[in-house]
Amino acid sequence: MKTIKLFIIGLLFLSASSVQSQVSVNVNIGTPPPVVVASPRVVVASPPEWGPVGYDNMEYYYLPDIQVYYDIRLSQYIYFGNGSWIRSSRLPSYCRNYNLYNGYKVVLNDYHGNAPYVYFNAHKVKYYKGYKGKPQKNRGAYHEHYDNDNHSNGNYGNHHDDHHDNGNHGGKGHGKGKH
Predict the structure, then answer these.
(1) Residues 6+ apart with CB under 8 A from 152
(2) Do residues 50 and 139 make contact, with C-beta atoms less than 8 angstroms apart?
(3) Residue 122 is inside which H or E element, if any?
(4) How far apart are CA 128 and CA 41, in angstroms?
(5) Tens of pLDDT along 83-123?
(6) Which among 71, 146, 75 has a CA at the least distance from the CA of 114?
(7) pTM to 2 decimal places
């Protein structure tokens, strides 16, 4: 009899400790809106016209001549300035005469993160200024008539905030491109 009492007391003790008081108030007026569950989408931008052919699903280019990264997914340049790495839809002003069509693009196919510059010290040694790997063909053709306001996909690299040509023949960059 004593064991039955202990058993019942133990059961009451366990059930009392696991009981939690909760107050829930639901007010439904009318028909609730339907719940739509969408699968997450990753928006990936198309590679720029000045990007090399054959690398449609890559995430980053490294531009060794100007030591700048390009994030293909976000259409942003990543460069070091004022003591930190900066992301921008435009190249920094010191690159205003750089021709993206003529410059070599290193396709970083071994990095899949958000900060390719963590390997900058290795990249700038391996892919030094003037580095040329295997020949590249651009996705689109360079046209001399692109104007200075056409910044959206880096048509030729003259991305600066002022619209003065500073003697560089209308801001057309240097070097000869395909027509």
Answers:
(1) 75, 89
(2) yes
(3) helix 120-126
(4) 36
(5) 999 999 999 999 989 999 999 999 999 899 999 999 999 99
(6) 71
(7) 0.58
